[in-house]
Amino acid sequence: MYIKRAIEVYQTTASTTTPTIDSIIQLLNEMSSLLSETQATTERVANPDVTEPLKKLQYVLFELMGVVDQRSEEGKRLVLQYVVINQSLLTVQLHKYYELLPEIREQLDQLAEAWSEARQNQRRERFTTNSL
To answer: Which Pfam families would you find in this protein's record (predicted)?
Structure first.
């Protein structure tokens, strides 16, 4: 449910005034929340079916990969990070290796934090002038 809402927000970004960076941060936070819920489910239920939440997370990762400028060095590193997260999600899905969920969540939280820092730097550059 969180991912569905985040995907809708992401898809309307082009037609709204919400900056892309804010939508990315929101998506990453929503992904982290869904991952927390999935992890809680795996801890409560013996044989949980977490296929759908993991598929949603993968879908959002692919969407995020699509907006990255892969010509830059930073873009290449970011796509690589998204690919690593996707591979971890696949491992969880195929091999039921739920121990990876906290690591994946930590990676998502770190990405959200990095994007937040980038947003702050971007704002600082825009609003800093040499005059009083």
So the answer is: FliS (PF02561)
Instruction: Spell out the residues 6+ positions from residue 97 whose beta carbon is closer than 8 angstroms to its own.
Output: 91
Nearest to 112 by CA among 52, 51, 23, 18: 23
Whole-number pLDDT of residue 129: 60
Question: How many domains does the chain fold into?
Answer: 1
Domain region containing 98:
2-12+19-118
Question: What burial class does residue 46 get, using C-beta atoms within 10 Å of its C-beta: 0-12 exposed, 13-18 middle, 19+ buried?
Answer: exposed
Taking alpha carbons only, the member of 118, 122, 124 closest to residue 25 is 118
CATH assignment at residue 75: 1.20.120.340
Encoding tokens for residue 98? 């739920």
Which residues of the chain have a pLDDT value below 50?
A: 132
